[in-house]
Amino acid sequence: MNDRHLELFIQLIANNLGLHIRPQDRTALSQKIVLRMKNLNLSIPEKYYQLLEADTEQSQKEWRKLIVLLTTTESYFLRDVGQFKLLEKVILPQIIEYKNQLKEASGLNPSLRIWSAGCSTGEEAYSLAILLEKLLPDWENWNILILGTDINEEALEKAKQGIYSPWSFRLVNPGLQQQYFNQHKNEWIIEQKLVKNVKFRYGNLVKDEYPNISDDINNMDLILCRNVFVYFEAQYIALVLKKFYNTLRAGGYLMTSHAELHGQVLDQFRAIIFPESVIYQRSEVGQKEVSRMPPYIYNIGEATNNSQQELVGLDPNSSAPEKLAETEIKPTAKLEPRVSPLGEDSLLSPTLQMPVLFPISNTTETPKPLKVRELVDNILRSSDGKPEENNTVNTRQISSSLTVEKERQRAGINLLQEAEAFCKNKTYFEAIKKAEQVIDLYPHNFKAYYLLAEIYANLGKYEQAINYCHQAIQVDSLSVFPYHLLAHIAEENGDVEAAKNLLKKIIYLCPSFISAYLDLGNIYAGEGNVKRAKKMYATSCELLKTLPPDTLIEQQGKITASELLKYVKAILVKLSIQ
Q: How far apart are CA 177 and CA 496, in angstroms?
């Protein structure tokens, strides 16, 4: 296939799916097209192009098969902790309060309508169902629709089944997993009480008309379209945004992934800015008026009556959150967000599951032992380098200095242990304070910087997390932990190339680091680079085989080495079939 043919296919794919094919992905795209041509016994690209271009049933059938090769289905429950915290604590309670007011006025059962656009294998839609079940004690009396749409029919079939591997739960509290899923062998099946409010259907954001009353895609309270626009051409992002605007009810909300709308004109929406994410609201006023309005800027605590109050398990008799429109905070040059602990009943995992080396090593730094030796040498020696004559005084000085340093070390270790305990218990505000106190005592303590990076990443505050990762790297440039966290953040922000470079650096620093190979394999598989994906997965298999079968792989959701090995082998089998 020559470059002219490939350019025609790239334009055709963009026009039908909105997908942006990057220069580095062209070889993989060519391979996928050739694969489909072989399956159809077509010898020349022109014939395959004509098939795709035709408006026939056969053409639509072929598009759906090609789509499976072009799209990525990587997803997991409660993806992007900061955004789900924002949904849990602010956005959904705001919608619920509004709907309750309508109920009081009309006497009818309230409704709540959410669209997960680009739902992949369904984890996002079911995560929303879990949030609503926790937030609505009387949710049986609500008319709830959570609709998931996607162009990948294989992903939709898996979503409809509601059966997931441990891989999908890597950021989920084990208690939550036990409460809403039933285990069958090594898989987890969603509870039927959640399934009845969740529907899945095929949907093409570029080609389909929205709103679509016949498919019940209209008058939506909330639209989530996350990790979708990162793959789109800019002009098709703009097209879909217009459709979303018209599909939302007045006052409805749109949530996308971070930085996905960069460069887009968003005059129709009102931006509401939180440290965790930007939320876009369809205003009830005209477009010209909206365009003149400044954005709202909030901390989560400022959008609720009590920054320490958790909405999960919220007492129904407690005061409702303040309305967003009544709590405007003027933009400032630098936003310093408060950190609100998630609380005992939060749905979110206490920490991001960060990498653990095999075997696990203790990275706690011994605080500045060299300083003590230098102090002893300075005390024992006079200015000309000879021992001091008054050894009694020197001995007292040494004893006093060593005692002070020992107490200082003990205080630092205790503070770090307290910070880790607070983090484990999800009391993040206290954990941050303790970790900062450790840094005050020992400005070069790697563990304290890295713990702060974990906490802020877990809260969705990526700017702070990145800052602390870099400070941790300054202390220990050979540790893979901060690089791995930075890779996760880069991928969440849609910077796949940066994520790949960071993961490659990790493999260079630590060739036995399993998670780096798995993460790279996922990225390559998502890009359609089957050859490289298989190589990464195969390497991770070889490394997993060297571990005892019951070894817990904590950074992959606390599953055992044997379970993870089985999962990765299944991926390799699937890739070999394609």
A: 29
Q: How far apart are CA 342 and CA 178, in angstroms?
A: 20
CA 128 to CA 490: how far, in whole Å?
24
Where is 237: in which H helix or E strand? helix 234-247
What separation in angstroms does the CA of 523 have from each of 12, 434, 494, 500? Answer: 24, 36, 11, 8
Residues 303 and 388 in one domain: no
Backbone angles phi, psi at 467, to 5 degrees: -60, -45
Return d(Cα 307, Cα 570) in angstroms, integer: 45
How far out from the chain centre does Cα 71 lie?
18
With a cut of 60, say whether residue 452 has pLDDT above it: yes
Burial of residue 378, with CB atoms counted within 10 A of its CB: 0-12 exposed, 13-18 middle, 19 or more buried? exposed
Q: Which domain holds residue 38?
A: 3-70
CATH (domain of 31)? 1.10.155
Condensed to tens digits (0 to 9), the pLDDT of residues 404-424 reads 556 767 788 888 999 999 888
For 291-340, the pLDDT digits (tens) are 334 455 555 555 544 333 333 322 233 333 333 332 222 222 222 222 23
Strands 198-202, 143-150: parallel, antiparallel or unpaired by DSSP?
Answer: parallel
Q: Give the integer Cα–Cα distance in Å for 534 and 521.
A: 7
Whether residues 168 and 307 fall in one domain: yes
Task: Decide the pairing of beta strands 143-150 and 111-117.
Answer: parallel
3-state secondary structure of 216: coil
- Number of structural domains found in the chain: 3
Q: How far apart are CA 484 and CA 132, in angstroms?
A: 32
Q: Note whether 119 and 179 are same-domain residues.
A: yes
Does residue 513 share a domain with residue 554? Answer: yes
- Identify whether residues 63 and 149 lie together within a single domain: no
- Written as one letter, the residue type at 458 is N
